[in-house]
Amino acid sequence: MHPNPRLNAIAAPSAITALVAIVLTAAGCQKAAETPSAPPAPAAPASTAPAATPALPVVADAEIQRIAPMVAPEYFETLTEAAFTDTPAQLDAAIASARAASSRDGKRLPAPAQAELVHRLEQIRQARAADNRADLAIASIEGYRLFVSAGINVGSAPVEVALLDYSGFRYGADLAATPTRWDDARAASAFAETRWAAIQSRVTDAALKSRFAVTLAGMKAAADAEDAGLAAQFNRAELDQVDELETFFARHAG
To answer: Nearest to residue 99, comparing CAs of 134, 127, 64?
Structure first.
């Protein structure tokens, strides 16, 4: 697995709240007329899934076991994290693992999701050929979304927690793109807010619940203000706090 770039420590709630207040003020002054973008559509920003139902990759069982023993979402998440930092050879190996796992686990998806998965794999191939790291990251995290939306590898947490992870990774890929994809970052932030709204009443840890709400507000405010530094800080905090949500639901399973 590649090292996870998430923060080891989260800023104190009072510090985060102060940052949110500053950014919200700036965003209100600079973008008062803007309305939040809609959540990300299932299709990639520049294209849509093909109408025909293509076949999943065909990979020999022995090869799958050798390079993809874990469940498919793990490889798509790893590929997303590594898209901007890995060497070409490392990326090729990560892509091969994602394809191999997809040949096995893609069969667990509904037919429309299988078709989209094949489309995402093709987008990954094209992005790798063009050395377009941002598109590679986006296509990879969309592959992750397909699996977790079907409840694959979500553990004891609600699917919404995995989709909050998805939102954070997509937001992060938007920040790492050149130029920064602010419209898509705002859409990813808005999508995260809808997933949080669906589960926040189930989070009985008051401190975690408060911190996560503040962090989401910070992501939105930073994207609205197009402040890359603050957006990156809140993005890292969101991904770390998703880990905390996973731990919370694991403790309260059943």
So the answer is: 64
